[in-house]
Automatic annotation (TrEMBL), chain A:
<keyword id="KW-1133">Transmembrane helix</keyword>
<feature type="transmembrane region" description="Helical">
    <location>
        <begin position="44"/>
        <end position="62"/>
    </location>
</feature>
<dbReference type="Pfam" id="PF00209">
    <property type="entry name" value="SNF"/>
</dbReference>
<keyword id="KW-0472">Membrane</keyword>
<keyword id="KW-0325">Glycoprotein</keyword>
<dbReference type="GO" id="GO:0046872">
    <property type="term" value="F:metal ion binding"/>
</dbReference>
<feature type="transmembrane region" description="Helical">
    <location>
        <begin position="396"/>
        <end position="422"/>
    </location>
</feature>
<dbReference type="InterPro" id="IPR002438">
    <property type="entry name" value="Neutral_aa_SLC6"/>
</dbReference>
<feature type="transmembrane region" description="Helical">
    <location>
        <begin position="555"/>
        <end position="580"/>
    </location>
</feature>
Automatic annotation (TrEMBL), chain B:
<feature type="transmembrane region" description="Helical">
    <location>
        <begin position="146"/>
        <end position="170"/>
    </location>
</feature>
<keyword id="KW-0732">Signal</keyword>
<keyword id="KW-0325">Glycoprotein</keyword>
<keyword id="KW-0472">Membrane</keyword>
<dbReference type="GO" id="GO:0051957">
    <property type="term" value="P:positive regulation of amino acid transport"/>
</dbReference>
<dbReference type="InterPro" id="IPR042944">
    <property type="entry name" value="Collectrin"/>
</dbReference>
<feature type="signal peptide">
    <location>
        <begin position="1"/>
        <end position="18"/>
    </location>
</feature>
<feature type="domain" description="Collectrin-like">
    <location>
        <begin position="24"/>
        <end position="216"/>
    </location>
</feature>
<feature type="region of interest" description="Disordered">
    <location>
        <begin position="177"/>
        <end position="216"/>
    </location>
</feature>
Length: 601, 216
């Protein structure tokens, strides 16, 4: 314990590992590879690394500095910087609450898949049989078995956000388990979190490494890797690439939630957070790149497999229609035989011409199907895994890794809520364990809403809107507050006090000029995008067609989106107003007894 | 006499060949994918295999109709191709009447496994065009396996939480007992030392330095 009774990390390593565990999350695995693929493969690394230098590193450093200096959670820390800015901390807490609500649902899904991997045949590898025992169930036939398992058996999804049903008991149980484990990790505060992060920060790398070896040795992996690493430099001219790079760095580092401030507030006063900030940011970006190599190896495997299956189907079709001997056509010669048969037997060929055109096999097209988010993690990856030899082992490893990444991030999310609230004197009367327990139970009960049949659509609302716009706003105000309201000079002195030397000109320029400008740019872009985009839409699962269809949100959905945004953003002006009114009241109270007012405002 | 029999046989053969017309009436198409199923160990398709097929089908018909004495000569194949696919019709024993498609289908469905086994093939590699295999009933265990794994993990986590919550209480109790013993021994000597259990006091934050806050 430090002299003011605040718990501290057992060692600086624990702090670094906690930050790594928090920053390295699911986004590194399922968002970065998607962006890489979207924006020309290897070439995307250029805007990504530039944005890391311009925006990611300075903001990360700044949040750690604030936390370590103020030794309070986000609300207390910002109130110390300026009493009008307490709302920033409150907005961070509100956004963290939203994040906690929906993030643990992903962990619940990971648990569900993990538990279902302990079967001789993976349940998403084959379709269940219909009641007549003549074939697979209809829905599974039009979609793929992996999609069926995700949408029907895992989510039991309804056909739109308006239709609701009951809670999926399996999901609910997994969510309870996810929250129980979260509670187990944070129940003793920094003492328990500090021990857990040794595992949650390091084990995912072991699994990624194992997957790297497995991935590159798969048949066809080289196609995926070639696809990723051939840079398409033309994409760099597209402004979207730069904007996506900036947003990705920003969200990947977990800025603005208050978790970094909370973690840093448990540091010793003289902890060298400058080097730690650089190390964690580099580890985070490095992990993203590492994870995309693995993902692209797996993409390549899956695409090659699909391509070869397609060729095989074509081959069978030709063999059966023209009654040729089985070994007449081999996989390589399918295409030339198609040509040959087309010219020699035109009328017979015309009968199957439609089927041939539909089932056209194209490796590029298979590789082009860029997927991100839960679709990548739970559908594409599980499809690739089911085709590997010994799929149960790979499945268990993969979902365990997803769980560690997710739980590691949850540690930061929940700490971001508990630390600032515990700084209030009223809360500190309650015991640590009870308070953490209440927070977990509260989030669990609200999170049960995501396990209903339309839960996934609400999940998407939260995923897309709860933490995107508000975070940009929060961090923008943060950097402006530190640079101009608190003042760079004061901030420099505080850092010198902690580290023993002032930050050099790079940091100061980034804080004062570059990062605010970049953030304002991103902010404006988001607003323009939102206005131009028209009614927000989502992907609704159509069970007859076995695919997702773009649907518009109903009115209550749109109202809810606006509420989500407004509830966190409005904390800032409202708290400033409240502080202003209170100050006026206090000053009015001070001024009353003296007859002659000489106090200047 | 011999010539008459020969004439009858050839006549029946030619009539039978007339019976088996691909795609029409009661004919079924069969497709063998021997090389796909057996790879290197594939056997070549020849007249003997064809005989086996006719015998297997005759068995299927006998089994289904419960005794009607179908023979190899009642199965009439035609239009054999290199793919190893051909059409066939079934006639009633000792007559030229075609057995209808429905009966043939049900007979094949009943003895599908036996026919597959005779050729070392499966439902996918020995296809009857239009007859869908009845899939095996899914095995559903009493407790779904995922629930078992869930139970184990949930149990472990609950034990962990209870242990973490109970441990400090137990420690405090033990310490109190130890201090109570010390107190007894101290009281005898009459010297009042440090208050029991107050060695690691509760920090009262009301008296801490609040002046860190920015002056307005």
């Amino acid at each position: 314990m430090e002299k003011d009774g605040r718990p501290i990390w057992d060692s600086p390593i624990q702090f670094v590992l906690a930050c790594v565990s928090y920053a390295v999350g699911l986004g590194n695995v399922w968002r970065f590879p998607y962006l890489c693929q979207l924006h020309g493969g290897g070439g995307f690394l250029i805007p990504y690394l530039i944005m890391l230098l311009l925006e990611g590193l300075p903001l990360f450093y700044m949040e750690l500095a604030i936390g370590q200096k103020m030794r309070l959670g986000s609300i207390g820390a910002w109130t110390s910087i300026s009493p009008y800015l307490g709302g920033l901390g409150l907005a961070s807490v509100v956004t963290s609450v939203y994040l906690c609500l929906y993030y643990n649902v992903i962990n619940a899904w990971s648990f569900w898949y993990l538990f279902h991997s302990f079967q001789s045949v993976l349940p998403w590898a084959v379709c269940p049989i219909n009641s007549n025992r003549t074939g697979p169930t209809e829905e599974c036939e039009v979609a793929t078995p992996t999609q069926y398992f995700f949408y029907r058996e895992t989510l039991n999804i309804s056909s739109s956000i308006e239709e609701n049903g009951g809670i999926h008991t399996g999901q609910a149980l997994c969510l309870v388990l996810a929250w129980a484990i979260t509670y187990l990790f944070i129940v003793r505060g920094v003492k328990s979190t500090g021990k857990v992060v040794y595992f949650t920060a390091t084990f995912p790398y072991l699994v990624l490494f194992i997957y790297l070896i497995r991935g590159v040795t798969l048949h066809g992996a080289i196609n995926g890797l070639k696809y990723m690493f051939t840079p398409k430099m033309a994409e760099l001219a597209n402004p979207r690439a730069w904007i996506n790079a900036a947003t990705q760095i920003f969200f990947s580092l977990g800025l603005g939630f208050g978790s970094l401030i909370a973690f840093a507030s448990y540091n010793q006063h003289n902890n060298n957070f400058q080097n730690q900030a650089i190390v964690v940011s580099l580890i985070n970006s490095g992990t993203s790149i590492f994870a995309s190599i693995v993902t692209f190896a797996i993409y390549g495997f899956k695409a090659t497999l699909n391509y070869e299956n397609c060729l095989d189907r074509m081959r069978l079709l030709l063999l059966n229609t023209f009654d040729l001997a089985e070994d007449a056509i081999s996989m390589d010669s399918v295409l030339e035989w198609t040509e040959k048969l087309n010219t020699t037997y035109p009328e017979q060929f015309a009968k199957i011409a439609d089927k041939v055109r539909e089932g056209e096999c194209n490796l590029e097209k298979e590789l082009d199907t860029a997927v991100e988010g839960t679709g990548l993690a739970f559908i594409v990856y599980s499809e690739a895994i089911k085709n590997m030899p010994l799929p149960q082992l790979w499945s268990v490893l993969y979902f365990f890794m997803l769980l560690l990444l997710g739980m590691g991030s949850m540690l930061g999310n929940v700490t971001a809520i508990i630390t600032p609230l515990r700084d209030f004197k009223i809360m500190s009367r309650m015991s640590n364990e009870l308070f953490s327990g209440l927070v977990c139970v509260f989030c669990l009960l609200l999170g049960l809403g995501f396990t209903t049949t339309s839960g996934n659509y609400w999940f998407t609302i939260f995923n897309d809107y709860a933490a995107t716009f508000s975070l940009l706003f929060i961090v923008l105000i943060e950097v402006i507050a530190v640079s101009y309201i608190y003042g760079i000079k004061r901030f420099e002195k505080d850092i010198e006090d902690m580290l023993g030397h002032r930050p050099n000109w790079y940091w100061k320029i980034m804080w004062a000029v570059t990062s605010p400008l970049l953030l304002i740019g991103l902010f404006i872009f988001y607003i323009i995008n939102y206005i131009q985009g028209g009614t927000p839409t989502y992907q609704a699962w159509n069970k007859e067609l076995g695919e997702s269809a773009v649907t518009e949100y109903p009115v209550f959905g749109q109202v809810f989106i606006v509420l989500l945004l407004v509830s966190s953003v409005s904390c800032v002006p409202l708290t400033a107003l409240y502080a202003f009114c209170r100050k006026r009241k206090d000053r009015a109270y001070e001024n009353r007894p003296s007859a002659v007012s000489t106090v200047s405002v | 006499m011999l010539e008459k029999i020969l004439l009858l046989l050839s006549l029946s053969l030619s009539v039978a060949e007339g019976l088996c017309k691909p795609g029409v009436g009661e004919a079924y198409k069969v497709r063998f994918s021997i090389k796909t199923a057996l790879g290197d160990q594939a056997y070549p398709w020849n007249k003997n295999e064809m005989f086996l097929f006719r015998a297997a089908l005759a068995f299927a018909m006998r089994d289904f109709t419960n005794g009607e004495e179908f023979g190899v000569s009642d199965i009439h194949p035609c239009n054999e191709t290199q793919r190893v696919s051909f059409w066939f019709v079934v006639t009633r024993p000792n007559t030229m009447d075609l057995v209808d498609k429905g009966t043939v289908e049900m007979a094949i469905k009943k003895s599908r496994n036996r026919i597959n086994g005779a050729f070392l093939l499966t439902d996918k590699t020995l296809e009857f065009d239009g007859i869908y295999p009845t899939l095996a009933a899914p095995v559903s265990p009493d407790t779904p396996p995922w629930l078992i794994v869930f139970g184990v993990v949930m149990g472990a986590v609950s034990v962990g939480i209870i242990a973490l919550l109970v441990y400090p209480l137990v420690q405090r109790k033990l310490k109190k007992n130890m201090d109570a013993d010390d107190e007894d021994s101290d009281e005898e000597t009459g010297v009042k030392t440090a208050e029991n259990g107050a060695n690691d006091g509760i920090y009262n934050s009301t008296f801490s330095d609040d002046e860190r806050f920015t002056q307005m």
